[in-house]
Structure prediction request, 227 residues.
Amino acid sequence: MNLPETILVIDDEVQIRRLLEITLSSNGFKISEAGTGREGLVSAATHHPALIILDLGLPDIDGIETLKKIREWYQKPIIILSVKNSEDDIINALDNGANDYLTKPFKTGELLARIRVALRQNQGSEVDPILTFGTLTIDLANHIARKNEEILKLTSTEFSLLALLAKNSGRVLTHQSILKEIWGFGYIGQTQILRVFVAQLRKKIEDDPAKPKLLITESGIGYRFHE
Prediction:
C-alpha cells in the first residue's frame, strides 16, 4: 500500500491552513504546516514533502527569498498561493523557481488540479521521448511533430519552442524564461519575436488558431501548454 504523499503548506493565515488541511487530507494527501518562512525552511528539510504550497506574504522572511532559499536544494514542485496578483509578482515567482501560481481567493478544485499536474510532471523526471496531446504527437528524439498522423513542417526554432512548452505541459513558462531558453540571453525582453513564433506554431498545431486549446496565453506573463 502506497503511503500518502506529504504536502507542505507555508502560510501565516490559520484559516487557509485549516482549509487546505481539510481539502488535501480528504483527497488522500498528508499535510505538514508552517506559519513563517523560517518554519517552512525547517519543515521542508525535515519532512521532505512531495510538493510545497507557499504564500508570498510571510511575516518574517519575504516569500520570494523563502522560495530562493528552498530552491537552493529542493527540486520538487512549488506552487505559490498568494493575494499578490500583479504580473510582476507572478513573473518574479515563476522566474525564481515556482512551478505554478494561484491567487487568493482560489477554488479548491483548481488548486487540486494544479497539484496533480505538478506531481505528475515531477514523477516523469525522464521525459517520454514521444509526447501525445490528442491528435498531436511530438517525437523529441527525432525532432518530428505529427498532427492527425501527418508530419508538420516546422523550422528548428518552432520545434524547439514546441518541445520546451510540451515538456512543461501544465506549467506556466514566462516570456523571459522561454526567450532565454530558445534564443539566449541576448533576446531577453524581446517578447514580440516570441509572439510571432507562437502565432506561427498555433497555425500548425491548433484546430482553430484563433481559439487555441493547446498553447494557452497567460496574459502579460507567458504561456502554458495545456495537457
Notes: The helical segments are 14-25, 37-47, 63-71, 87-95, 108-123, 156-167, 175-182, 191-205. The domain at 130-225 is CATH 1.10.10.10 (Arc Repressor Mutant, subunit A). The mean pLDDT is 90. The radius of gyration is 19 Å.
